[in-house]
Design a protein that fits this description.
Chain A has twelve helices and no strands. By secondary structure, chain A is mostly helical. The N terminus of chain A is likely disordered. The chains are: A mainly alpha (273), B alpha/beta (332). Chain A: This is ABC transporter permease.
């Protein structure tokens, strides 16, 4: 009986990180078994973003700038968003299945395992289109970077911007998918709306929008910190002080996502009673 | 100290109270009404280490909800659960190391990964050492024949293979307390036999087991104690042997006579026995109280006075007893 009551160590951050990494690596390994699927999906990810690239190229053939933003700066805006949204498919694609798992009671097993449920759900699968999106996003970002004449000096800021953008995007998608704990349905409609808002509005300079939208996207749903703020700082449209806001926004989004997901789990009542 | 202790365990769900049809749906949108549904109603359950307990009841009795409460998936509306002294809901991570769970209707395998990868992910999640992992996989392979489908993707497995792989997943970390919810559902006889043999071995090794199943053969072959629940309440809790001894008070003899069986005449001739027509006109079943008459005495009397062409003995199964418990004909 003494053995039965021996204390067990709860999951620490290192353990959680190891569980997450192993699950993602296992998914990537399994993808390599289906190379045709991989190339089709990765190409689909590229094609979608080629349209955005073509749109900007055609637009700037007729106008010199949009609200003071030039062609290469706009490419950076689109590129950074594409890298961030593509990364969600690679790093936490499983959270899109939250609604379906809640409906079918598939969270059950994940609650009985010694790892955070959100980590287990996020690593359920990965979206292969993410490889294409991230690759093409990086190409757009690099092309815009060179064209905007930024040089090598701000590269560390660029890397920080990418890391924060990916973190904010993953956290926001997780948070909006967690809404399905309360609003039951197989589709993560709120997360779809978020991505739709970003792919339509956040690839444009924020100055085009009324003050209400600017405040909303900076301080309520801080999507502006995914691409607009860092690119605006790098290209001199905003002062460097704004850059502090990017990691802070990332931290706030992660905490909010984990908190909302945890609250959602509290209200989870499985299925088939 | 018991390994599992539940006191006054109650779970109430809120369900929308709306009329059927489009009109009812619209009305519910404007005027939301709910009513409470109690799935588990004040259950007390104590399980000692090493016990094998069958937890049975008709559909909707609250079996799966109880398992979800005991495993920490659901939070009780009222009452308490302690598994090895811990609240499984609030101390989820610590509890997870000590329990193994299998829900027969769902898989815990990663759908797009080979079985082997799922097991390795669980190995790392539970912090199982390489040596223990190898030893357990070898044992599972010996008893469950895992080897043949270890490299296969979970989504390509047959139901029987999937269930065996899920059982290995539930036990890879050598849990002290194992919950199995319908582990043999949908399986063919040979796979069921193999699983039951495996579970018997598990119990013999000292693992505590709580098993829910509609297949009473699972229960009779694996468990020593049975808890019957109905409408969320415990209807019976005791050893299976005692349940049989207490409620199986009659035995039956099936007779195949030379000519047609006249049940009223036979009842008149043998008034101490209960007679019923059999499957064909010449077949008849006679039931007698085992406490009043010995089987030899009954058979002697029947063969001497009726000269049957053939006869066979039958005992009411535990299934009959449980059916009567469900129907409320028996009380503890």
């Amino acid at each position: 009986m003494a053995d039965l009551l021996a204390p067990r160590r709860p999951a620490g951050a290192r353990h959680v990180g190891a569980v997450y990494t192993r699950a993602i690596v296992a998914q990537i390994r399994s993808i390599t078994e289906y190379p045709a699927d991989f190339w089709v999906m990765a190409s689909a990810g590229v094609m979608w973003n080629v349209l955005q690239f073509a749109f900007l190229t055609v637009l700037f053939a007729t106008v010199p700038d949009v609200a003071g933003w030039r062609y290469h700066e706009m490419l950076m805006l689109s590129g950074l968003f594409t890298v961030a949204s593509g990364s969600t498919a690679l790093l936490c694609d499983g959270v899109w299945s939250t609604g379906q798992m809640v409906l079918k009671g598939e969270i059950d097993y994940r609650i009985t395992r010694p790892a955070p449920v959100v980590v287990q759900v996020a690593t359920t699968h990965i979206g292969m289109q993410g490889f294409g999106e991230v690759a093409f996003g990086l190409v757009m970002l690099a092309y815009g970077w060179i064209g905007a004449g930024l040089g090598l000096a701000p590269v560390p800021i660029g890397l920080l911007a990418i890391a924060c953008a990916v973190t904010i995007e993953c956290a926001l998608v997780t948070l909006f998918c967690a809404v399905n704990f309360w609003i039951k349905g197989p589709m993560s409609n709120f997360a779809f709306m978020l991505i739709d808002l970003q792919s339509n509005a956040m690839v444009l300079p924020l100055g085009l929008f009324p003050i209400g939208v600017r405040l909303l996207t900076m301080f309520v749903i801080p999507v502006a910190f995914v691409n607009f703020v860092p690119v605006a700082v790098l290209t001199g449209h905003l002062s460097a002080a704004w850059l502090v806001g990017t990691p802070l926004a990332a931290l706030a989004c992660v905490l909010a996502a984990l908190g909302v997901y945890r609250l959602g789990l509290r209200s989870y009542d499985s299925s088939g009673h | 100290m018991p390994i599992l202790e539940a006191r006054s365990l109650t779970k109430t769900f809120r369900r929308p109270d709306k009329a059927s049809g489009f009109k009812g749906a619209l009305k519910h949108l404007a005027q939301r009404k709910y009513k409470n549904y109690t799935a588990v109603d004040g259950i007390d359950l104590t399980v000692e280490a090493g016990e094998s307990v069958a937890y049975v009841g008709p559909n909707g009795a609250g079996k799966s909800t109880t398992v979800k409460l005991l495993t920490g998936i659901l939070k009780p509306t009222e009452g308490t659960v302690r598994v090895m002294g811990r609240d499984p809901h609030t101390e989820r991570i610590a509890n997870a190391h000590d329990i193994g769970v299998l829900f027969g209707q769902r898989t815990q395998l990663w759908w797009d990964l080979p079985v082997e990868e799922s097991l390795k992910l669980l190995k790392h999640m539970y912090g199982v050492s390489d040596a223990d992992y190898k030893a357990r996989i070898a044992k599972f392979d010996e008893l469950l024949d895992l080897g043949e489908f270890m490299p296969a993707l979970a989504r390509t497995l047959s139901l029987g293979q999937r269930m065996r792989a899920d059982l290995a997943c539930a036990l890879i970390h050598d849990p002290k307390m194992v919950y199995l919810d319908e582990p043999t559902i949908g399986l063919d006889i040979s796979v069921k036999d193999r699983l039951r043999a495996f579970l018997r071995e598990l119990v013999d090794d000292g693992t505590t087991l709580l098993l829910t199943s509609h297949d009473l053969a699972d229960i009779e072959e694996v468990c020593e104690r049975i808890v019957v629940i109905d409408k969320g309440k415990v209807a019976y809790d005791g050893p299976i042997a005692q349940l049989k001894a207490h409620y199986i008070t009659t035995k039956a003899v099936n007779l195949h006579l030379e000519g047609p069986a006249d049940v009223p005449a036979l009842t008149e001739k043998f008034p101490d026995f209960a007679w019923a027509a059999g499957a064909s006109p010449s077949e008849v079943t006679v039931t007698y109280e085992s406490a009043r008459f010995s089987t030899a005495e009954v058979l002697g009397s029947l063969t001497a006075r009726l000269s049957p062409r053939d006869l066979s003995l039958s005992e009411p199964s535990i299934e009959d007893v449980i059916r009567r418990l469900y129907a409320g004909e028996l009380t503890q």
